[in-house]
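pasting for ref
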Amino acid sequence: MADGDPRSGPEGVPVPAQGADHPPKQAAEPADSAPAPPERLQKVLAKAGLGSRRRCEDLIADGRVTVNGLTAQLGQRADGARDRIAVDNIPLPGREGVVYYLVNKPVGVICSASDPQGRPMVTSLVPTLPRVFPVGRLDVSSEGLIVLTNDGDLAYQLTHPSFGVVKEYVVEVEGRLSREALGRLRRGVELDDGVTAPAKISLLGPSTARMAIHEGRNRQVRRMCEAVGSPVRRLVRTRVGPVSDPLLAPGAWRHLDATEVGRLWEAARAPVQVSRTGAPLLSTRPGLFGR
């Protein structure tokens, strides 16, 4: 297939062509503004997507909210950009200077902040300042969604093996996916670094499947598929925890909103939910920041 030709992606993965005359559109950066004065804490919480002010008052009254490490009181004021506000120990998004980008990484771009070989880096797709770093891996031959941020706490929670945030992919393999291969992927596969956890997998076509895993091993999906005799032709990450965006074009980025950041924190703090077979489940239970 020639470079620049439109590509038909697997089901649910829009992949428009990116020609020289049509570069990916970028989200506008927020304009600088003067610091806002402290507001009633329940108003700050409501703005962050935690529900109505009445519900936020109940969160405060129940002792579930802290400001700078201290239990908050009704009537208290706070600065959402400067104070460290948390609900059930989940930090409230929106701290000053902290940014969160969702990027649709194209093939050929590496997930690194530097590269001695001079290859294009995912950090070059987003604004230069503030400096951010990719959360986790997506190999150079793969494409799809990855989070970039300068929030080291969230990055740690999302990538540490003990937390196991679910990531979802659309996989296109060589040949047909057999029942035997699907069964092995659903039970877990023996790799050189040990047996994997079971994958959640559903067929989209004879050689295409949707696959979800919660481990973060290097090139894990590719190695699992190769181990069952189905080498990967194309791999697209379509979801990171609760966050997805089928309309985000390859090479484009956007800011994660406060609700999405909050839901990432919830996903990182919650134990991994699995089915009776051990496959990961994307939570459908509403949390502090909704579904």
